[in-house]
Amino acid sequence: MVAALTSTTLLVPTATAAAPSTARADRLAAQARVADPLVIAHRGASGYRPEHTLAAYRLAIAMGADYIEPDLVSTKDGVLVARHENEISGTTDVADRQEFADRRTTKTIDGRAVTGWFTEDFTLDELRTLRAKERLPQVRPGNTRYDGRFPVPTFDEVLALAREESRRRGSRIGVYPETKHPTYFDSIGLSLEEPLVAALRRHHLDRPNAPVMVQSFETANLRELATRVRVALVQLVDASGSPYDTVAAGSPTTYREMVTAEGLREIATYADGLGAAKDLVLPRDATGALGEPSDVVEDAHTAGLLVHAWTMRDENQFMATDFRRGTDPNAKGDARAEIFAFLDAGVDGVFSDFADTAVDARDSWLAERAEQAG
């Protein structure tokens, strides 16, 4: 269940931030700090099923996730579908489909040459003939038994699933979509923002209290959406690099600059939250162990931003050395302890491939805090 909102802990930008737009002010009037940290199912229950399938989202909901997260890319005919990338050879069986062999090509995506098959070269009807497969078969071989079983879902189908499961369970299941490569899709005439807004309105979700958060690693599209929708917006930041829209404009701003106190105040003029790479919150030392928390969470909260950390995974190779068990990189580490560390650092939610682990850790953390307070 999505945590209840409190009316007494409203997050607002500091007085030093620029004045928000009217649409942004409307969202701020309704967006409050959640009482409990959120569990966001990263691409669904992707630790157990091929990512970005309705089966993965449905399982994550059954495990107790508050939000499911679809990454959005466009088809040739302008339909938003859920894939981690628009290049789909790693997540579908397209490479085995001889009828599409001639669609293999090389494109420049965000300044990088990428070879493969791309969603924007397929109509929705063509894409729907493909079947999803596990993206990390060496890490999660058990998931390969589901290869070939599930189609690529549309954004509309993901929204419908969340609505149906919310009604069936009597609790709100949120949707946390990410727009992938918006500058690139704009450049080929397949803007992601218009169909995203249209889908939210079709499903009666363009309202301040809707269980929807829209995220992006770029900035210009979030600024645009801040004037067009009333749902929460989240600025994603990596531990290195720059948003591609700033690179394309010739004035790259690094993600590290964006998470300074000044940069966070600027983000708060158009967004409600920060989706932060784990190392920005709890940096690692030279041995790969966690160091002391950075100022990012505190500074973000001061600026009026929620903070959601990404991505929690159960396997050793994705964790700081503190939480690894044994030497097998694919073996399960102490993911529960890792999530505890981030919750202790003050984050308002975590993205996780293993929603069950994250829900158990969050609930145990809350129980311990309640016991300590009582």
Would you give an account of this structure?
- With 374 residues, the chain is an alpha/beta fold.
- It is built from 14 helices and 15 strands.
- The chain has helices spanning 22-30, 54-62, 124-127, 155-169, 182-187, 193-202, 220-226, 244-248, 255-258, 261-267, 278-281, 296-303, 335-344, 355-373; strands spanning 5-10, 32-34, 38-42, 67-69, 71-74, 80-82, 105-109, 112-116, 174-175, 178-179, 213-216, 232-237, 273-277, 306-312, 349-352.
- Helix 2 (54-62) packs parallel to helix 4.
- The longest helix has 19 residues, at 355-373.
- It is globular and about 60 Å long.
- The model is unreliable at 1-20 and 27-33 (pLDDT under 50).
Task: Summarize the helices and strands and which ones pair or pack.
Blueprint: E1 5-10, H1 22-30, E2 32-34, E3 38-42, H2 54-62, E4 67-69, E5 71-74, E6 80-82, E7 105-109, E8 112-116, H3 124-127, H4 155-169, E9 174-175, E10 178-179, H5 182-187, H6 193-202, E11 213-216, H7 220-226, E12 232-237, H8 244-248, H9 255-258, H10 261-267, E13 273-277, H11 278-281, H12 296-303, E14 306-312, H13 335-344, E15 349-352, H14 355-373
Parallel strand pairs: 3-4, 3-15, 4-9, 5-10, 11-12, 12-13, 13-14, 14-15
Antiparallel strand pairs: 1-2, 5-6, 7-8
Helix pairs in contact: 2-4, 10-12, 13-14
